[in-house]
Amino acid sequence: MTWHQIERAALAHALREAGPDAPTLCEGWRSRHLAAHVVVRETQPTAAAGIAVPALAARTERAIQQVAGPATDPEGYADLVSRVAAGPGRLNPMSWSRIGEGANLLEFFVHTEDVRRGTGPVEPLPLDQAHVDALWRRLVRSAPLLYRRAPVGVVLVVPGGPRRAVRRPTGEHGTVVVRGEVAELVLHAFGRGRAARVDVLGDPDDVAELERTTGGP
Known about the structure:
It is a single chain. Helix content is 51%, strand content 8%. It folds into two domains: 3-116, no CATH class; 129-214, Nonspecific Lipid-transfer Protein, Chain A, CATH 3.30.1050. Helix 1 (3-18) runs antiparallel to helix 4 and helix 2 crosses helix 4 (74-86). The chain is α+β, with helices and mostly antiparallel strands. Strand 1 and strand 2 (163-167) form a beta hairpin. This is TIGR03085 family protein. Residues 9-87 form the Mycothiol-dependent maleylpyruvate isomerase metal-binding domain.
């Protein structure tokens, strides 16, 4: 299995364990809405455009609500999670290994934690080193885009491990260090700062600017 396939299986497991009405880290979404988001993103490209284009967000939200609607009961929810677990068909580029790794490795990891941490702090999932390395490689490629709204510089630091400057400061802002395990750095970069176990170090004003764009420390 590729890493994104492993992450897909982990997400499906977390969704099954949670049930249809569990809170998530995604504001306003229960677990069934998050599952519907995954299905819409992979199978309805026109409807999913609002994920990237804010002007189309209402269209995407309507599609998510439509897919999530039948999943309020156990049978409907089981069917929806099965669609998440199965993924798109072979002709869908999202199922291809290279595209899937780029599009889904971090996405599915974060959504698994959205479900797991939706009710509060939990112990991190145990990950072997090869898995951690795969997350780190993808994170350092994606981080410049993920932190693009931050006016401060950002350096990601893994205790006892690698570090990477992923954004330069703009204007008179300084640089902030975000320190934590790779999985926690991924969550921080994806705007789950309040749920991520990280230390954010720097000038207080710069730290506040970063928190504004990442959902907290």
